[in-house]
Amino acid sequence: MSERTFWERIKTWLYQMAGVFAILAIGIPGAIIVFVNESPTRWTVLVLTVVFISLSITYSYLRYQYVRRFAYPYLIVQTGITVWLLILHPNLTFYVIWFYVLAIEAIMALSRREGHLWLAIFVVLTIALLVGRLPLLEAMITLPVFLGGFFFFVTFANATYRANEARRESQRLLEELQAAHTQLQNFAAQAEQLAVSEERNRLSREMHDTIGHRLTVSAVQLEGAQKLVERDPGRASEMIGTVRDQVREALAELRSTVATLREPLESALPLRVSLERLAADFEAATGMTVHLIIPDDLPDLSTAHRLALYRTAQESLTNVQKHAQAEQVWLQLERQAQFITLRVSDNGIGLPDQPDSGFGLRGMRERASQLGGKLVMEPRNGGGAQISLWLPVS
């Protein structure tokens, strides 16, 4: 149990005990008075007083568990007992103070409107009983005292009611804040996991597109050099030198990726320059002819767009080298109204048996999807295969 809850229970218990004490302070002297005067109604007064006190104590214990269920029956019975006692004996006028306790309980247990309705009922009953049971002059003198008591106790009850409402509202807001805080923590953890996953995917694509491309070219060159080492040592030596350069560039890109996690140099270069360099390196490494077609009016592209176009061209050329058995490659950029299109086609053997398999193709499609674009792999008119990338540009 928290410290705050403990003190709230203590305050609630004190309020209950104060109400019970007020009822006892009225009921016990009243019973003594009727017995001292040997009133013929003394036993009725005693029984009603005991019943009233017993109901009050029971209600004080139960009202926080069954407040709405018992409030109206309790108030009706206790009001009837109080009116009956005031009618039975003329010396029990001070029993009107029980209406104070009932008014406070009504305000605390019911809505504000219902509590004020009960207060009005108690005020009307007090006026009617005092005027009906006392001489007019005594009633006029006594009424302001009792009505002042109503004002004092009801003001206190209203203040307590508002304080409880404010406490409940604060508790509700605190619970909502705690729930929101927990939810935000969960969202933050999910966002962190997604960011880590996205960064892993990005790094895997970068390493595949850069190091994978270099090593693929190197492997092809080494195979060719191995075949030519006896027949044409000069050409074999030249191919081995190309492999050495490719491996050095792969190591440099690996260091850059692992150490700085930044984009490679090509993403910072103009797209035309990076594609021309890529085509020239590919021709030198493979002996294939690359037909590079780039319009003069390229739009200003973001780094993400330039990198996606470059990586798609690079991966497509790698796939041509690995699978196409082609002699010529066409690498073309087209500017349309709201799109820029990259096409890489070849005159090779066509699509592979499973064109949608492979990490490289999946990485290209992920890049396209992240930028709102689309990537399609299809047969080329005239033979071979073609990869097309559409990216929206503003």
Topology:
Layout: H1 3-36, H2 42-62, H3 67-88, H4 97-109, H5 112-133, H6 136-228, H7 233-260, H8 271-286, E1 289-293, H9 303-324, E2 328-335, E3 339-346, H10 359-370, E4 374-379, E5 385-392
Parallel strand pairs: 1-2
Antiparallel strand pairs: 2-3, 3-5, 4-5
Helix pairs in contact: 1-2, 2-3, 3-4, 3-5, 4-5, 4-6, 5-6, 6-7, 6-9, 6-10, 8-9, 9-10
Which tags fit this structure?
single chain, 394 residues, 5 strands, 72% helix
Walk me through what this model shows.
By secondary structure, this protein is of the alpha+beta class. It is built from ten helices and five strands. Strands 1-2-3-5-4 form a five-stranded mixed β-sheet. Strand 1, helix 9 and strand 2 form a beta-alpha-beta unit. The longest helix has 93 residues. The protein is rod-shaped and about 140 Å long. About 2% of the residues have low confidence.
Q: What does the average pLDDT come to? A: 77
Ends distance: 61 Å
Give the amount of beta strand, in percent.
5-15%
> Strand order, biggest sheet?
1-2-3-5-4
Shape: rod-shaped
Order of helices and strands: HHHHHHHHEHEEHEE
* Cα-atom radius of gyration: 46 Å
Summarize the amount of helix as a percent range: over 70%
Number of strands: 5
Helix-strand makeup class: alpha+beta
User: For the report, how would you describe the main beta sheet?
Assistant: 5 strands, mixed
**Alpha plus pi helix count:** 10
- Uncertain segments are 259-265
